[in-house]
Amino acid sequence: MKIFCAFVILVVLFFGISQSEIFAQSQNRLTVSFENDVAPRYEVSLNPNEKYILSQSYSWVRDQTSRYNLVSYSIDGSQHIPIPRIARGEFTLDVRTDSSRTIVFRAVSQFPIEVSGADVFFFTPESPTQDNWFDLDSKISVVVPKGSETEEGKIRKAITGWSLDKTKMQVVLADDTEFFNTPTIQMSNFHTVDFTTQTQYRLDVLSQFGTTTGSGWYNKGSEVTVSVVPPGDFLIRSVVDHWEGPDVESKGNSATLIINGPTTVQAVWSTDYTILILMIMIPAGIGFYFFRRRKQVVVSAPQVAQVAQISQVGRPSIGKPQSEKKYVAQHFDFKYSSDLTNLTKQKTVEKLEKMCAAKLMTESRLAEIKKKLE
Amino acid sequence: MSSEEDLLKRVTEVRNLKENCFKYLEDSSKDLLTQKIIFAIAELTYEKRGSVKLAEIAQKVLGEGDKKKQDLVRLTIDKSLLKCGLVEKLHYSANDVRYVLTAYRFQKVKAIDSFRGESAEPIGKVYEISKSTWPIPDEFFILVAKKFGYGEALKKINTDFDKDEIPRGKYEDLIRTYTEDLNQITKKITEKYGGLEDLVGTKF
Question: Which residues make beta-bridge pairs with B121?
Answer without folding.
Answer: B110
